[in-house]
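Batch job 17 of 40 flagged for manual review because the log was empty.
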Amino acid sequence: QVQLVESGGGLAQPGESLQLSCTASGITLSNLAIRWVRQVPGQEREGFGCIDGGGIGKAYYVTSVKDRFTISRDNAKNTLYLQMNSLKPEDTAVYYCNTYIYKNYWGQGIQVTVSS
């Protein structure tokens, strides 16, 4: 059974940092492309970053988070990380990790709130 579990969210002030984790069971994250997606209430989910499967694991980002967010992977822990620096109020959302293996698999989502 495939399961993705996010952790590490919470409240941060503008300019601060948070790190999210996405731990997988039933799959090997390093073999798969994994997306980070976020959703603001009343809006559609927005994919803002992803990391390739395979040894190199190159990451890609949308412009709004590039140079602030970093996706990395710990293969031994079967865990994906999202390091978020220089947080802005507009980063406030529920964050999900997501992968596709014949169908979409989502974590439960975790709230990130950026507010002074």
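Reviewer: the log was empty due to a logging misconfiguration, but the result itself is present. The first strand starts at residue 3 and ends at 7. Unflagging and moving on to job 18.
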